[in-house]
Amino acid sequence: MIFDAVGKSSFSRCKGALTQKGMYLSTAPTLGIVLQMLRTSMFGSKKAKFATAGLMQNKDNLTFLKDLIEAGTITSVIDRCYPLEQTAEAHRYVEQGHKKGNVVITIAIPSDS
Domain span at residue 27? Predict the structure, then answer.
């Protein structure tokens, strides 16, 4: 499953990364995702779906996702990590549109001395 939570990609762009029965899930209601949903519902094994993720969450859904993550079934893809001091550089990198996964800002916790 590829979950595009902010509509920065497309089914066509992600299709090659999906397994044979994989699913591309978007929360961005675009004409493109609606057309891909219609097409993939009739043809092919890879599916495009749209979900109103914020409206559909409940304790059972979140528990199910937690269990998948803990079992290693779902993993997040980290493209790059930046220290807090390089947040502006991290934003520039994301805005270029070439990231493959998440960009993480790390915060160093000062040690007690």
Answer: 2-75
